[in-house]
Amino acid sequence: MIRATLAVGVVALSTWAVAVFPRSILVFLLFQGSLLWVYLARIPRWLRATLLAAALLVLMPLIGSFNGYYLEVATQVGIFVALALGLNIVVGLAGLLDLGYVAFFAVGAYSWAIFGSPQANQIFGGGFPLAPGWFYVFLGVGLCVGAATGVLLGLPVLRLRGDYLAIVTLGFGEVIRVLANNLDKPINFTNGPKGITPIARPPVPFGLPYSEAFYFLVLLIVCVVVLVNRRLEDSHIGRAWEAIREDELAAQAMGVPLVRSKLLAFACGASFAGVMGVVFSAKQIFINPESFTFLESIGVLAMVILGGMGSIPGAVVGATVVTVLNLQVLKGFSLWLNELKNAGVTVFGMSLADLPTQLEPAKYERMIFGMILVLMMIFRPQGILPARRRARELGKP
Amino acid sequence: MTALFEARGVTKRFGGLTALHAVDFALDEGIASIIGPNGAGKTTLFNVFTGLYQADEGSVTFREQPLLGLRPDQITALGICRTFQNIRLFANMTALENVLVGMHARVGLGLWDVLTHRPRFHATEGALMARASALLERVGLLRQANEVARSLPYGDQRRLEIGRALASEPALLLLDEPTAGMTRGEAGALMRLLRALVADLRLAVILIEHNMRVVMEVSDRVTVLDHGEKIAEGPPQEVQANPRVIEAYLGTRHSGGPRRRLAER
Description:
- The complex is a heterodimer of chains A (about 400) and B (about 260).
- Chain A is mostly helical and about 400 residues long.
- Chain A folds into 2 domains: about 1-65, no CATH class; about 70-305, no CATH class.
- In chain A, about 70% of the residues lie in helices and about 0% in strands.
- Chain A has 15 helices and 2 strands.
- Chain A has helices at about 1-20, 25-40, 45-65, 70-95, 100-115, 120-125, 135-155, 160-180, 210-235, 235-245, 250-255, 260-285, 295-305, 310-345, 365-380, and strands spanning about 345, 350.
- Chain A has a two-stranded antiparallel ribbon.
- In chain A, helix 1 (about 1-20) runs antiparallel to helix 2 (about 25-40), helix 3 runs antiparallel to helix 9 and helix 4 (about 70-95) crosses helix 13 (about 295-305).
- The radius of gyration of chain A is 22 Å and the shape is globular.
- In chain A, about 45% of the residues are buried.
- By secondary structure, chain B is α/β, with parallel strands linked by helices.
- Chain B folds into 2 domains: about 1-80 and about 170-265, P-loop containing nucleotide triphosphate hydrolases (Rossmann fold), CATH 3.40.50.300; about 90-155, no CATH class.
- In chain B, helix 3 (about 95-100) runs parallel beside helix 6.
- The longest helix of chain B is centred in the middle third of the chain and has 20 residues, at about 120-140.
- In chain B, about 45% of the residues are buried.
- The chains are: A mainly alpha (about 400), B alpha/beta (about 260).
- The interface of A and B includes residues 228, 240, 264 and 396 of A.
- Chain A: It is a multi-pass membrane protein.
- Chain A: One of its GO terms (molecular function) is branched-chain amino acid transmembrane transporter activity.
- Chain A: It holds the Pfam family BPD_transp_2.
- Chain A: Its main location: membrane.
- Chain A: This is Inner-membrane translocator, branched-chain amino acid transport system permease protein.
């Protein structure tokens, strides 16, 4: 009872704090922390579900009305959660190390970018862009194109394991990016490094602002992805994937068809990225190959590993932590140090203003991110919320 | 009528080494043991039978269906399953999950059933769970059902591997040194279990075993391999007295090499 009251109180308090201090990053972090706390607290299931639903469906858009940037952050978090969950199937469950995952995201993004903008006229002559309503059809198209690309990548690498698989998938990711960069001639498919714009945005019901519409759309997709992930994990398919991760040879000897299972893992993981790619391109209006670099693949992998391999809550938390860290915490830290510098604060008798430009705070961002990753791997290698083996109710023999 | 399981002239080479040379083997029912010194080709024979290796020559049939060229999972689906000499459980999965994976070939569900959670899914999952519990009880691991395989004691891991193999509903079970590293008492209990399984499930078993006490006690027939060739076959007592077998195990008087000991533990 005390815990329940506390949980409600913490969420309400942190929301109120965001309303009062809409510019403070720390307060927004407090709000996110309170959600994690609610998720982990030992409170009745219905209360937890209600609180989380209320926070995500009502409070978050409300917070967005105080500070629009927070809603943007939340949408980004959602996109990366879906990506992390997709990669979690491939890497966490099936144990197939994929370093080119962002390629599937790119394929989805370009599929809508090309047809949702005048770009397709370069290929087919005229009649484009498609009506904005097609966006919703293209969510399905992105899913299929992503899955097909996943199978395409899966076929040649089926016999590879570990390091070799990682290298080939890395190459595949680069191939897709280089293709996007160079497919502007002889026929202009992707418009090369200049990228594609303007990409049509979907029609929105109830006259919602775009930022909120995308937030809800991403939230909906994330919910579906979580549900699909859970059902797969809790079935013979998920068990087969884990068996392959544990011992491929034994799994096959126990009747698991390796080819089909691995291809299914690649296809499922890739399809989530494909869908999110479509959403991403419409949200950004503009995409170019720079959005799909190797570093993005590594970023998503870092989310999966940081959160805990093979764990759905882990992937969600990992994606949130990494995205918020990159978008808010490290940027905020840099801003803060810069302010100190400009104010001429002295530390140990040295004025920060005398700091050489090589040591500018903005340049630490990546270093700090790297250090956090290293420290995590040393002190909590299993991730923030590691996969736990569930104790199951036994059926009556 | 041909036998349930029949291998003819199976030959397997690794580069210049002939690991198996024209081995014939047939089994209809009961327990057949394969013995032989280390490196005789026993496990290689198992690997050929279960599709992990492709034989260079010869044929293997199960219920009159040729097995050579099939993948291991296809052979398992036909009704042949095995355990491994060096235990190969899914270490980070629970005992129950290990057994459930063993049932993979018998799950008649597709991706769509799983995603939509149709009534079929729940019915099948429930049936799988019940069968898994029954199997775990059979091999004496029901209380450890939710424990991670890695954390089980050695003897339990051996029995779990047998339980996992049984989960695929095999008609023929191949056991690769199931009593290795067990105490005499544990080995005896395992063999009693094996006898009971053979009787209850009408299971045919091929056993690779170094423990002669077990072999002599439990086998209906013994096949002896040495240097990839079958040198003897017959009822246990007969094989035990066969001079070629004694020679393979003990070495000839003049061979001079280290004597291979007939494992009398």
